[in-house]
Write a structure and sequence with these properties.
Two copies of one chain form a homodimer. Helix content of chain A is 42%, strand content 13%. Chain A is α/β, with parallel strands linked by helices. The longest helix of chain A has 31 residues, at 289-319.
Chain lengths: 666, 666
């Protein structure tokens, strides 16, 4: 290793150490161990331009081991991103650009939010998938405007998580070449040596998935690393994993190779010993001048690459102006004008009871006619979730331009891969599974909300209305669970019309995720009191039916229970009680409305209120007040035909009527 | 194959077909394909006694592919379990013993609830682990009272789920011999051929985990199957997977090998064609007499095995009476008398602020002194979750009597393996991770609640109080999420005393799970107005401090926020307002109290109420009413030292005081 390289690597190490020491909190061990590999990648291979961080054809770099954030911030600092030393000094402090785990900030070079292990790895699979899809769609012979690598740095913890196993298997099946994982095999996890519980042969496992396996290489030998990276880049038909043997806390005389180097500062004494050990005479947070000049070579290489691409793109634009327009539109995350023109008329054809999942399938296909870059699929349930794009191909080695993605029975990675697709840009991803399996994919839904990704999460078979499959498959706590995720909008449409509205909302939400919750069972068409505009759904709640001039009782319902509420209202009218039925497809959207609208729908003076929803009642007190009654399912469901399940669990028109009369004091 | 074997296999096939046809709903394909392997296993290998389904040393049989429930019910029917033909005829109907997916019912031979894919596989790993632990503890030279196999039948879907990957890796590391997985490799999933998305080499993958791989064998050749099962049983040092090539919907002329055989009835015509094709002249639901006699050979074999074991156990009892007593106690799931004697005095030593996770660690170790069969661990966070049993060994090939289990960074399988341990019987399992990672393990927590398993789920680092690790690691919606799971009791203790109480409750809940939610940060000792008895925690909520004779305002808080509420109360007193501070460690337990107690704690006439909890406020309206105010965290957190995070997000004494005064109209 040349001396300048040593200095550069130690610059990364000591910036990381200094950040953690100053914060008195953080993870120094992984940055110290991974600095040589990170240096080699960024200095010689990674295609980026720190002056143009949003460059669509940049290589994507994902630090799946998000706890090594200090290393990422150090890299961004030395390679010219908007990451000044002041921010490094505010590591893990309130309001800094350097939080404990990386938080997506493309302008500063942070491609994705990582920390929950395995998520970044699966995000990278999604990015590599997006790259292939965009190349499949927009590249033209002699005009390769998309052709980049996706790099992911992963730890032992990433490798142990099931979500990465799922994503790796998917990446192998899809033959995602140009996806390169560098596995930091330091043999240490928090409870000590990985011998205790992680004795598997990771290379053999990835080989079984269809990956090419390189190494083990010595993670301190940058020539070995460089060779491995070059070899990996040659492999275009398979994803590649490079196994890198490193030492956690490298350089620390007393902590190298120990779990104690992982999650706490070295401490002033050990930091000093490490400085002595690695001959590092600089004060904290200093990038030596010679190192800065050397880093600049990489930054300059990046600028040239970007210029070359711009030239290439200009040529493309000249020859394929329409394609270029579409490419720009897609990458900017905008929708083409008039994309929703056909949606209103979809309802005209619907004259019989229909499940909202069915309607959703029709809408999805309609949208896909106008929006070329809508792509997604289900976790092996497409015939049930109705999510096949019938006019489109199937994504895979035979057709990288296909819009139908077969995620396999892998809900967790489906969510994380969809996040990666969205993070890459250029594609609007949707996913689908039964609502109960939201439980298998909670972490990526949360991260989509945290990152502000416009993913559309479809969840069908949304209640005990699933019927015979029984309690293991009947969601009860999941609808409310979705509502608890900050930033997520959850929509539970009551019929075909609301389903169209829900999709329209979801498509327009390009910077935050939307969950659409759909029925398995058929729902009758709702007869409404007033004029219906599908944009009423965007209000979150509206009066779907009412009797009399002033409501005496308000019944708030969602989804399949709106029809029960309406029947109850009719019945109550016969008994001389004027009810108002409010359909509330989305709590979040209703809460966003101005007070006057909210009070118009739910007048404070009407205290007699009932909520009806086939899920946990916890939370409904917010809309029905202290005197209200929440009808729902506060237990696990039952295996039975769905009508029987509804009857047995008390979700019936009779029950609503009885409770309403009781509430009303009759 | 002998004719009688063909008849027996077809009996299983047609019972399954008949169930699905009668129910007009269900999954015929897998039972038809797997009937030969199921027959061979049950007829010749499985050690069970259907007259004594609870036999501790029985082989465990797990149908991980729970959608093939009809096959399981058919097996239980023909092999003498309490599963009469009337129940088969009520397949998937309300109140039957034959729900859509198997629901744990040991008396009827159903070892675990399956359906959500991968869970059964991981349960089986837990059962095999429990077997090893019990053998390690109770077997004596010449007296092997525990020595059985754990069998699991798994599908392609099971193999794709990350939870099974995690569990398989763990089983390999722990060298769980006598765990045998039969993998139904039928190459079909719901979206069609597994080629689309599941091209990995499953055998090579399991080999990489350290499993022995047998096959592929022809799933229709019972001699090949028999040989494979015999070979698998010889392997005592590694888990074994037998890859079985089968045809989904075997016997159906038009559906064999097709996805359409998976999840819907064959239909009357195709069922008839299948009858003709397989020469099956019997009417629906008939077990031919000759088949019944043949099945009885297996049942008789089982009875003899049970008798032999009883004799063996009597001898053991005679020689090791104390061990036998402990074994009985453990298997019956009872706690030894006086197990909690030392718990009260634990508090005496605590005089300084302490994190509840620290206290929990002390309590756990105290309990482990008296309860030998308390075993568990964390998902690679033990130093942080404080869950090491310091006086006990580490479970693994070197010490199968160790009580500390290293689950690795595998939260999802940790939960499912713990469920398996509990299902096996003989061990009280606990798990631990950060509360945010509850999101990685929602499905097993739900299933523990559904099955009524006394697992103790510990979740530390329970709020934004986690501090610098930031929003990816700060739970916000998880506490309320736990409360939404029917049958789960969630406890969030406010200090050392409540932590002791929480553990006592959890240990006593042997037939339902408990989640204990603990702080990372230190909490001051609470000064209480009245006498404190740790059993007050069991009331769910109690008055922890109050001023004046009649409360003018009630502040309800949980966990780390109770101290804030108390400080606010002191402050309010100075301002002339009498507050009552209610600590509410558990919603569920409070809701269970008689009305008089609930109204004593929260008198209906006191409308001025505030809740304080560092999590989503949704749901708190239930206790604070329409006029109340919920203080919480309705957004994602921030990376900062925890005190800063609390301040920034408005969880402060000042805020509570201000809001209280506003509410009170001052």
């Amino acid at each position: 290793m040349k001396n300048i390289e040593k200095i550069c690597i130690n610059t990364l190490r000591f910036l990381s150490i200094d950040m953690v020491e100053k914060a008195k909190s953080g993870h120094p061990g992984a940055p110290m161990g991974m600095a040589p590999v990170a240096y080699t990648l960024w200095q010689k291979h990674l295609r980026y331009d720190s002056s143009n961080p949003g460059w669509p054809d940049r290589d994507r770099f994902v630090l799946s081991a998000g706890h090594a954030s200090a290393l990422l911030y150090a890299l961004l600092h030395v390679y010219g991103y908007n990451m000044p030393v002041e921010e490094l000094k505010k590591f893990r402090q309130l309001g800094s650009k350097t939080p404990g785990h990386p938080e997506r900030d493309v302008e500063s070079g942070i491609e994705t939010t990582t920390g929950p292990l395995g998520q970044g790895f699966a995000n990278a699979v999604g990015m590599a998938l997006a790259e292939k899809w965009l190349a499949g769609h927009y590249n033209q012979p002699g005009h390769e405007i998309i052709n980049h690598y996706t790099w992911v740095l992963a730890s032992d913890g990433d490798m142990m998580e099931g979500v990465s196993s799922e994503a790796a298997s998917l990446a192998g099946a899809l033959a995602l070449g140009k996806l390169i994982c560098i596995y930091d095999d330091n043999e240490i996890s928090i409870e000590g040596s990985t011998d205790k519980t992680f004795t598997e042969d990771v290379g053999a496992r990835f080989s079984a998935y269809g990956w090419r396996v390189i190494g083990p290489v010595d993670g301190n030998d940058i020539e070995q690393i460089d060779t491995a990276l070059n070899t990996a880049k040659q492999e275009k038909d398979r994803p590649v994993i490079i196994i890198c043997k490193t030492c956690i806390g490298y350089g620390s005389p007393n902590k190298c190779g120990k779990a104690s180097a992982h999650g706490e500062p070295l401490g002033a004494d050990e930091a000093e010993l490490t400085r002595n050990n690695l001959n590092w005479g600089y004060p904290p947070f200093v990038v030596p001048g010679e190192a800065a000049s050397h880093f600049k070579k990489s930054t300059d290489r990046g600028k040239q690459a970007y210029s070359a691409w711009c030239k290439k793109y200009e040529q493309y634009k000249a020859v394929f102006p329409e394609e270029a327009d579409q490419f720009d539109l897609a990458l900017e995350g905008r929708l083409p004008g008039g994309w929703d023109q056909g949606m209103g008329s979809l309802l005209e054809g619907i004259t019989k009871p229909v499940a909202t999942r069915e309607v959703s399938g029709v809408v999805l296909n309609e949208i896909a006619k106008n929006i070329r870059n809508l792509a997604g699929g289900s976790a092996d349930l497409a015939p049930s979730t109705k999510t096949i794009l019938t006019e489109k191909g199937h994504f895979g080695p035979q057709d990288y331009a296909g819009n139908n993605i077969h995620f396999g029975v892998r809900e967790h990675s489906m969510g994380a891969v969809a996040n990666g697709i969205s993070l890459h840009g250029g594609i609007i991803p949707y996913t689908a599974t039964f609502l109960i399996f939201y439980d298998y994919m909670r972490p990526p839904v949360r991260l989509a909300a945290m990152m502000g990704l416009g993913v559309v999460f479809l969840f069908t078979h949304d209640s005990i209305g699933l019927g015979e499959d029984g309690p293991t498959h009947q969601p009860v706590e999941q609808i409310m669970g979705l509502r608890l995720v900050p930033g997520l909008v959850t929509l539970r449409p009551a019929d075909a019309a609301e389903t169209v509205g829900a999709w329209k909302i979801a498509m327009n939400r390009r910077h935050s995720p939307t969950a659409i919750v759909l029925t398995r069972q058929k729902l009758p068409l709702i007869e409404r009191s007033g004029q219906f505009d599908i944009d009423l759904v965007a209000r979150g709640a509206y009066i779907v039916r009412e009797w009399g001039l002033k409501p005496e009782i308000i019944i708030i319902a969602t989804g399949s229970e709106v029809q029960l509420a309406i029947s109850a209202g009719i019945n109550l009218k016969e008994k001389g009680v004027n009810a108002r039925v409010v359909s509330m497809p989305s709590w979040e959207l209703f809460d966003e409305q101005e007070k006057s609208y909210r009070q118009m729908i739910l007048p404070p003076e009407v205290k007699a209120r009932i909520s009806v929803e086939a899920g946990r009642t916890t939370g409904w007190q917010r809309y029905i007040g202290e005197d209200g009654l929440a009808i729902g399912v506060d237990r696990f469901g039952v295996s039975a035909p769905w009508q029987m399940a509804y009857g047995y669990l008390g979700l019936t028109v009779e029950r609503i009527v009885d409770e309403a009369l009781r509430l009303f004091g009759r």
